[in-house]
Each structure stands twice: as C-alpha cells, then as structure tokens.
Design the sequence.
C-alpha cells in the first residue's frame, strides 16, 4: 500500500496485542474530526462504510445485522453490474451469433439514434468529455487518481450515471464529487488489508488454504493433519495472540465479519472489497447525487432548471445561493450588505462551492472531514409545523444536511470576513472568495458551521415568511437594503402598501383639483368660489363637529383612509384659496402700483368696492375662520406647518385687530366684525396681502380680478412661479400629513389643544406686529390719499412701500424664529423637525416677498 | 476501435456532379478516424470536402487527378493492421486478383485497397484482404457504364476488421458486412 494513500486522519493501526478496550481508537477519530455524534457512528473508523450508511446506500438503523448489510451491499452491486452490462455498449462485438443485425440500421454511419452505433458514438462523446476532466483530477494526488485503473473506474461510473440520468448529463464537477467517494473506499480497503495482515489467522480460512495447496488431492485431504494444524496453532499462539473472533475488539470484529467471504451473499457480500469498489462507489455517488429521499440532491445543483415543486422557480443552485445569503444576512448583516453593495451575488462563488461541496476550496484531507459532517447531518426533510400548504422557497434549508452546507458556506464567508470587508470592488472581493486560504483551522470552521446550522434550522422554522419575502426581493434582483432584517421588512411594508394604493391617486386628484380651482379662481366670479369656500368650511366644520379622531381609530384602516382623504381635501381647499390669495397678492400689489400711479380714483373705487365686498364677505368670515381654525387644529398639530400658524394668526388678526382671543369668542367677534367692519377691513386689504394669506383678502382680490387681468400680463413670471412653488411645498405637507395620519390621529385628540396654544402664543408674540402693520397700512392710506393729489411723488411713495414691506417681513421673520424656539421646547422631535421644515418653507416664501419688495423699491 | 472510410473514383466534376445526397448525409464528421482514398477525385474541392469529414486523409494518385503530388502507392498502419493503398490503373490486368495479390505482397500489407474498376469487390486472399470500394459517385469507367455508387467503411478493432459496404441501389442505401479476422500466424509473421 502506498503510504500516501493512507489517510492521515485514520486512527493508527491497533497494537498487535489488542485488548478488549479499544475505544481509544474511536476517541482518537473523534478528536480529529470533532464529531459530536459518535454514538450514531457505527463504523467510525471506516469512513467509506460510514458514508455509505450516511448516504443511504446501506441501512442506517443500528440494529441492522452484518448479514443485512451484506445483503444490501450485494444487491447494490448486482444492480450496478446489470446497469453496466446494459448501458455500456460494444457495437462491434455481436451480442450473439444467432442475432442477425439489421445492417441498414446498425452500421457505423447509421442515422438512427436508437442504433447501437449511435449509442456508442454518444457514449464515446461523453467519455471524451469525462476524460478531459478526469485527466486533470487532483493532480496533487496523481499517484492514485491518475492511475489507469482509477481513471477507468471513475470514467465508467460517471458514464453510467450520466447514461442512467440523461436529463442531467455530465457536468463539470461531478468527477470531483465522485473522486473522494472512491478514495475513502480505497482507504477502507487498505485498512482492511492492514488489519488482515495483523490477524491473518482469523481472516484466512485454513480449509481454504489446504484446499488450494493440495488441489490435486481433491477430496482426500488429511483430516488429522488439519486437526493437528488447528491444535498447533492454538498451542503456538496461545495467549499472545487472539484465539477467536470474539476476543477481538468490536471494531475489528466488524471488519472481519464484513469481509468474511462465507457470510451472507458470499463473496459478493463482502462489504469491504477491492473488487467491488467500483460498484460501491457508484452506489454512493448515485445516492449523493439523487439525495435518497432527502432534500439535498447534488444532481439538482448541476441542473439549470428549477426542480419540480420548487416555489421559487429558480435553479436549485441559485436557490441555495439565495439561502446562503439569507443566512448570512441573519448572521452578519454588515458583511451581507457590503457584498450587496459591491454587487457580489452569491452564485458567483457559491456555484463553485456548492456544486463540488467545497471540494475545490479544501485539500482532500480536510474535505473528507467536512464531508463527514455534511453526510452525518440528516438529509431528511425537517418536519414542518406549517405543513404542506406553505412550502417555503428555500429548499436547501429544509434538511439538516442542506442547512449544514449553507452554514458551512457562511462560515467560510465569515472566515474571510475582514478581508472581504476590506475590498472595495467586486473583482478583488471575488478573487478573495474564490481563492480560499488553504491553511485554515478546519475544526474551528466546522464548529462555526455547526452553530450556524442550528441557527439556520431554527430560523427557517420560526419565520418562514421573511424567507419568501427575502426571496421575492432577490428574485426581482432588487436586493434592496430593506431586506436587511426580515422583521423590519414585514412590519412597515403593509401600511405603506395600503397607503400607496390610494395615495398617488389622491395626490393626482388633489393636484388636479388645485389646478381646476386655480383656473376657476381666475376665470370665474365670486359666487362659485364662495360656494367652494363655504363648502369647504362646511366640510371642515362637519368633520370637526363629528369629532373624528376616536372613530377613526376604531374604524380601522379603510375608514382612516377615507378620513385622510377628507382631511386632504379640506386641507387642499384650505390651501387652494391661500395660493390664490398669494397669487392675488402679487397681482394686487402690481395693480395697486398702477392704480396709484395712474389714477387715485381707481384706488378709491377699489377701496370702496373692497369695503363693500369685505363687508359682505365678513358676514361669512367668522364661520370661515372657525372652519379654518378647526381644520388647522386638526392638522397643524401633527404637522403644524408654520404657514398655517401664520395663516391662523393673520386670519384672527384680519377678522379683528383688536381681539387677539379670537377663538374663544368666535361668535362675538363675528358680531363685532359685523358691527364695525369698515375700519379693519379697509385697512387690512392693504396690510394683509404683504403678510400673505387671508380669506378676506382672497375674496377681495377675486373681485379685483377683472381689473387685474391687465397686470397679470405685466408680471407673469412672478405670479406664475411663486404660487407653484408654494403648491409644491403644500404637497409635501400633504404627503407627510397623509403618512402621519395613522400614527398621528391617536395623538391628535390629546394634542388638539396644543395648536391653539401655540397659535395664541404666536398671536401674543405677534402683538408686536399689529402696530407695524397698522403703520404700513397707514402708510398706504396716506399714500393713496396723497396719490390723489400728487402724481410726481409716485417714486418716493413706492420706495416707502418697499421699505415698509421689508420692515414687515422682518417682523414676521422674527416671529417665526420665536415660534420655532418655542416649538422645540414643546413638541416631540419629529414634529419639531416638521415644524422646522415648515418654517423653512415659510422663510422661503418670505424671501420671495422680499424679492418683490426689492423690485418695488427699485422701481 | 477505429473507423476507416475507404472510397475512390469520384471523378468529380468530369463524370459526376457530386456524391449522392444519401451518402453525403451519412458521412458526418466525428465518426470516422481515417479516410483512405484510392484516387481520381479529381479536383481539389473534393479533397477539401474529404478533409472536413476527417482530417486524417490518405490519397494515392489516379490517372485523372489534378494534384500530381499524390503518391502512386501508400501504406499505413492502423491498430494491428497494415493497409496498402493504390489506385489500381497501374496494375494490369485491371482488377485482376492475382496481380493485386502481387501488389499486396509487394507492399507487405494485410489489407490492400485499390480502385479504378468502379466495381465493388472484396477478396480474402492469403490471410489478407483485397478491397475495391468502387466509385463513390457511381461514375462510369472505361470498363463499364453500369456502376452503382459505393464505398467501404472498415471498423478495425484489434485483430478483427469488419468491412461495411455501402451501396446505393435504386436510390436505397444497401449495407453489407464482411468480417475478417487476422490470424495469429500472420500476426507473428510481422
């Protein structure tokens, strides 16, 4: 026996005087491979035999008698022999003389695919392919694998397997799966011969020898002589040597029994037989490839089509790769995301790892240890609690063996972790993955893999759904980051999905309506607009009156959607006029300029008409304001856009300059505003436009439209771009708002008082504002009055206007800043951010205002 | 196991336009290991075509061959058989077994393949075989107009050779088989 063939991991040959206490042997092998399942391993020191048991070639029940093993072995060998006889055709040797072959069909050039010759040519083709690979098989173990005998065995086995499984055919890599199997059988046989040498007397039947030696004497051999021999032997060997089989240690006993030519099935049943190595190797290979009754069938890894019954619809090896990444993701998400970022898909390296079961990454000796573990893991499917109705995607994780394979791969990945994380491009990453270091601590790696295996199995059972989701993401090759943690992907997914159904629709609708309204606002007369406004008010009032928040919570998502839509509509309607108001502001300002410069009477008229209109509109004003008040109280606390706060404060201010506590005495203020509208209203139309939104103004402006149409053309850029920007902002708010409703609704009721507080505080702080605004409005009136008489002072007055506007803006800014500070102290963080954002947008709007004023001042 | 295709006297394009379609469909690359051609191809295109079937091509010169570099006779050893190749117009009388046997002895071959007569013949003679594959295109000869296209495929395996004869008769390919075993004495004689 060539020493190179001796497996270094094989236990040392037993000492000549074997005591019954042989277990140290077993322990030795345990230490080497780190096995935890020794008790299961019946043939611990005979790896080939153990693998045959593990792979399902031989019965695995420990109660199986040696005779049964022999019978099964013999059956396998018979099957193989039959197969070989049937499939390996020798066309030029006639099967038998009597057979008259149809030459037209059975000739070398026959086109008939069924003819023996075409079969022969197909086989020859296959053989060439196999040979190409075999000639390069394990060059470092060339002294064994490159021998003609071994190559012949390997070739025949592969050829037969491929012919037996034409759907699979031969694929590169199969030979590397087969070679170790043959190798362990060879090692076993060598171990047997070694043992045989030591205990020759037990193995060789003396009668055999006598028969052979005294062949010509045939039956007349000397019984007395043989008797003597027997006695001699017993006498001579005495106590030094083992007298009978029973005295041997169990392991050796098994070996002897397994190789007894007179056991069950005779010579064919010798379990460890050099003669039948080819047969045995084929059976093992077949079992490994087909995965006898198990879920891991290596043949699947070579096929490029999804297995029948696979949920994923992916080739199994890709599926296994997905499982591998899934496991990695659970174990080490940072490495996982790094690999994802680099675009290193698992199949790039796992194809090579899985198809030959890591045969290319480890030396043969280490590989055998790894395979020990792989085969030791049960290949049967794990009993699932969820049963058949949900057959989750990743089949490889169904069985302990598959899980171990995946775990092994992940352990290898983790072994390379640091060097992988250091890579910056996929090429180097793959280089490192595909050049697995050779000097590794195989024991540690296996321990890691084992712990991962447990994890993989438990994960697989406990949470099947994330697997599928994870898979779906991957199958679409989206591989988004959201996959990083399954629990994360699932929980936020549903609400978002529910939202998106209606969200875009809604958004579109809202945008559409806004567009329509805007057009309406420009083209149509007040009544319709008024109607819209009142409608809105009614709407909001109704909503506010019904006190929706609790019901919303109760009614669940669908209801909340409707409510949300209501809110959105209301908000939109509330904001729509606002935009228009802004638009009008610009118009108005420009108009006023012209009006002022052209004719003071126009202004006068305007004022008059305004006065009238605002009078009538003020009738409505209180209710409108309450509506706004309510609606803003509904939404402003979840999002609390400062715009609204501002709006709020301005409206309250607009309705009556005197009363700051507008909310408290709504009806009364309505009365007061009814009673003495002329003064504030006549003032405010001028002052409020600059501070942006007010319903009164909006209404007034819409009346001005006919006059302003001319101005519209004068400064289309301003009027067009500004509102649009505003609208954009609004939609952002809408969006955020819609998202927040679900969570925010619950808090809304509690916090409902909040906005009023803040607004009241705002208005308190903005108490400093009214004087300024009043001064500006005074300015205006004075300007307009002056304009009556003096036309030459136009430029000066304009400058004054600009100045006053600037002042005004500064005041607003300061108010906002204060408001923000307060907001930070009061609200929670997310709201603060939103508030801050809102303020930013408001500030942007103010900037626009400032621009206008700059233009004005320049003029 | 080696497959050797033996054919000759195609006379393309002078006496025949091309190989019969049925033959052409049968002759596919990858199966045949050697081609021996007795000559009279007559043009280079046929030579090229034969090369596509199998790169190992052996040709002797017929009287109509354009390429004058072909040898008059050629011998080659395939497996345990020694094959001799000659067109045959030099051997008179044409197609005469004794004359051919003389050439066979001269070349010291087990199998002698000749052509020129456009008639398939195969003789077992003096422990060897003398084969005439006929004309692959069915071209007429100076002897006869009645020619069936035919060629020969030899399956040489060890000491045994099976000669498959393909003949196109009335549009159908007819296959015949001749077994020949080299005797041990001949083997030792070498």
Sequence:
């Amino acid at each position: 026996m060539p020493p190179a063939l001796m497996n270094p991991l094989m236990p040392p040959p037993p000492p000549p005087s074997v005591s019954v206490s042989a277990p140290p042997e077993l322990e030795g092998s345990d230490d080497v491979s780190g096995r935890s399942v020794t008790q299961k391993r019946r043939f611990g020191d005979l790896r080939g035999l153990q693998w045959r048991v593990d792979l399902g070639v031989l019965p695995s029940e420990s109660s199986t008698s040696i005779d049964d093993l022999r019978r099964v072995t013999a059956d396998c060998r018979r099957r193989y022999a039959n197969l070989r006889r049937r499939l390996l055709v020798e066309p030029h040797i006639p099967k038998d003389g009597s057979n008259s072959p149809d030459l037209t069909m059975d000739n070398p050039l026959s086109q008939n695919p069924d003819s023996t010759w075409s079969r022969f040519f197909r086989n020859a083709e296959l053989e060439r392919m196999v040979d190409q690979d075999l000639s390069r098989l394990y060059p470092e173990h060339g002294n064994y694998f490159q021998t003609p005998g071994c190559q012949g065995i390997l070739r025949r086995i592969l050829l037969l397997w491929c012919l037996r499984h034409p759907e699979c055919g031969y694929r590169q890599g199969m030979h590397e799966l087969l070679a170790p199997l043959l190798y362990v059988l060879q090692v076993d046989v060598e171990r047997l011969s070694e043992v045989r040498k030591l205990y020759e007397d037990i193995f060789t039947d003396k009668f055999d020898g006598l028969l052979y030696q005294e062949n010509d004497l045939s039956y007349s051999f000397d019984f007395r002589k043989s008797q003597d021999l027997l006695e001699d032997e017993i006498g001579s060997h005495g106590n030094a040597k083992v007298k009978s089989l029973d005295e041997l240690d169990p392991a050796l006993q098994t070996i002897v029994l397994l190789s007894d030519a007179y056991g069950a099935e005779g010579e064919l049943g010798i379990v460890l037989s050099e003669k039948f190595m080819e047969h045995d190797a084929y059976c093992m290979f077949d079992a490994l490839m087909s995965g006898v009754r198990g879920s891991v069938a290596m043949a699947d890894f070579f096929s490029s089509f999804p297995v029948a019954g696979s949920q994923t619809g992916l080739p199994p090896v890709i599926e296994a790769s997905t499982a591998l990444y899934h496991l990695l993701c659970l174990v080490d998400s940072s490495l996982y995301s790094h690999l994802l970022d680099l675009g290193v898909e698992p199949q790039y390296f796992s194809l090579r790892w899985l198809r030959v079961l890591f045969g290319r990454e480890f030396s043969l000796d280490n590989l055998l240890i790894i395979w020990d573990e792989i085969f030791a893991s049960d290949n049967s499917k794990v009993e699932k609690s969820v049963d058949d109705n949900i057959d989750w995607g990743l089949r490889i994780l169904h069985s302990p063996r598959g899980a171990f394979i995946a775990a092994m791969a992940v352990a290898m990945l983790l072994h390379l972790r640091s060097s992988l994380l250091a890579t910056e491009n996929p090429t180097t990453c793959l280089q490192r993955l595909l050049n697995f270091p050779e000097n590794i601590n195989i024991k540690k790696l296996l321990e890691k893999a084992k712990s991962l295996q447990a994890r993989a199995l438990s994960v697989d059972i406990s949470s099947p759904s994330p697997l599928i989701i994870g898979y779906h993401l991957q199958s679409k090759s989206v591989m988004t980051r959201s996959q990083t943690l399954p629990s994360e992907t699932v929980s936020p997914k549903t609400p978002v999905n529910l939202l998106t159904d209606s969200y875009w629709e809604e958004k579109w609708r809202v945008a559409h309506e806004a567009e329509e309204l805007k057009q309406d606002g420009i083209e149509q007369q007040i009544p319709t607009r008024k109607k819209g406004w009142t409608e809105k008010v009614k709407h909001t009032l109704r909503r506010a009156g019904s006190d929706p928040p609790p019901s919303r919570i109760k009614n669940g998502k669908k209801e909340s959607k409707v409510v949300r839509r209501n809110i959105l509509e209301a908000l939109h309607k509330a904001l729509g006029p606002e935009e228009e108001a802004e638009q009008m502001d610009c118009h108005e300002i420009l108009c006023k300029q012209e009006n002022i410069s052209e004719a003071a009477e126009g202004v006068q008229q305007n004022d008059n008409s305004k006065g009238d209109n605002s009078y009538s509109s003020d009738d409505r004003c209180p209710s409108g304001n309450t509506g706004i008040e309510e609606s803003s109280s509904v939404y402003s606390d979840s999002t609390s856009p400062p715009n609204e706060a501002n709006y709020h404060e301005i409206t309250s201010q607009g309705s009556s300059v005197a009363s700051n506590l507008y909310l408290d005495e709504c009806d009364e203020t309505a009365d007061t505003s009814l009673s003495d509208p002329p003064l504030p209203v006549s003032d405010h139309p001028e002052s409020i436009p600059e501070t942006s939104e007010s319903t009164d103004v909006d209404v007034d402006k819409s009346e001005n439209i006919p006059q302003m149409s001319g101005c519209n053309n004068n400064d289309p850029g301003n009027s067009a771009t500004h509102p649009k920007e505003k609208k954009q902002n609004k939609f952002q708010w809408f969006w955020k708002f819609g998202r927040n409703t679900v969570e925010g609704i619950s808090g809304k009721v509690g916090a409902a008082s909040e906005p009023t507080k803040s607004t009241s505080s705002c208005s308190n702080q903005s108490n400093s504002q009214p004087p300024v605004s009043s001064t500006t409005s005074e300015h205006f009136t004075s300007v307009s009055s002056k304009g009556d008489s003096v036309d030459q002072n136009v430029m000066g007055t304009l400058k004054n206007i600009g100045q006053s506007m600037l002042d005004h803006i500064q005041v607003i800014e300061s108010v906002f800043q204060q408001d923000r500070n307060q907001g930070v102290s009061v609200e929670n963080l997310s709201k603060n951010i939103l508030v801050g954002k809102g303020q930013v947008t408001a500030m942007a709007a103010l900037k626009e205002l400032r621009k206008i004023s700059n233009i004005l001042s320049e003029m | 196991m080696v497959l050797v295709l033996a054919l000759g006297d195609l006379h393309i394009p002078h006496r025949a336009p091309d190989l019969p379609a049925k033959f052409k469909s049968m002759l596919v690359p990858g199966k045949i290991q050697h081609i021996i051609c007795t000559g009279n191809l007559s043009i280079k295109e046929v030579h090229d075509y034969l090369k596509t079937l199998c790169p190992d091509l052996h040709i002797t010169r017929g009287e109509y061959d354009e390429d004058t570099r072909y040898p008059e006779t050629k011998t080659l050893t395939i497996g345990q058989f020694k094959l001799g190749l000659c067109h045959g117009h030099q051997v008179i009388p044409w197609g005469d077994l004794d004359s051919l046997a003389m050439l066979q002895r001269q070349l010291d071959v087990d199998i002698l393949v000749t052509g020129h007569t456009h008639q398939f013949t195969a003789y077992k003679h003096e422990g060897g075989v003398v084969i005439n594959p006929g004309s692959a295109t069915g071209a007429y000869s100076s002897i006869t107009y009645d020619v069936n296209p035919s060629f020969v495929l030899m399956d040489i395996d060890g000491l045994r050779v099976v000669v498959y004869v393909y003949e196109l008769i009335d549009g159908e390919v007819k296959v015949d088989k001749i077994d020949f075993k080299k005797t041990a004495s001949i083997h030792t004689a070498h």
About this structure: Chain A has 35 helices and no strands. The two ends of chain A are 109 Å apart (CA to CA).
